[in-house]
Amino acid sequence: MDWASAAYTAAALVCAAAATVVALGHIYRHLLHYAEPVYQRFIVRIIFMVPVYSVMSFLSLIFPDSAIYFNSIREIYDAWVIYNFLSLCLAWVGGPGAVVTSLTGRSLRPSWFLMTCCFPAIPLDGCGVLVFLAAKSRYIKNAEKAADLQNFVLCVEMLIAAIGHLFAFPYKEYAGNHDFTYPFAYSIAV
């Protein structure tokens, strides 16, 4: 392993470890202040995406021969996160019935602003686009290098996502409602 490869792997490790620590701390605080189970169960599952992605991407980076297994775990959890995000959105708006009622008779019209009139759907996977551009510019010469770059970028991206989740899903919203830090102490006191 050359110096550049070791630095590349070390940077991925630092980002993956930092992302995992931030996300697990955030999950812990949500569980410590578990006041709204209807919402927080989905939030915790969404936040847990960061450790799963970080660890699986790092393992894929250092064990490329076993990457198919790590990537499969990551993809399965991705589907689970999408389901939980949709469930959270539905819970926030009052459930599926409220959505059906509010959308009855409405339609999404073609719009230049929303790009729904002329353009095909564009995947918003930042890593896929980066790898595609790197391959087109001949920076990446084979599929193994492309997979390494994607796994490295995911490790870095998960650190950014972990920090973003702190703002998107703040535990402090639930800390003031009911503090379930010591539920047994409350039942003994009553």
TrEMBL record:
Pfam families referenced in this protein's UniProt entry, alphabetically: Solute_trans_a (PF03619)
Key words of the record: Membrane, Transmembrane, Transmembrane helix
Location, primary (coarse class): membrane
Compartment(s) of residence: Membrane
GO (cellular component) term, any one: membrane
Membrane disposition: Multi-pass membrane protein
Transmembrane domains' residue ranges: 42-64, 76-93, 113-135, 147-168
Protein name as catalogued: Uncharacterized protein
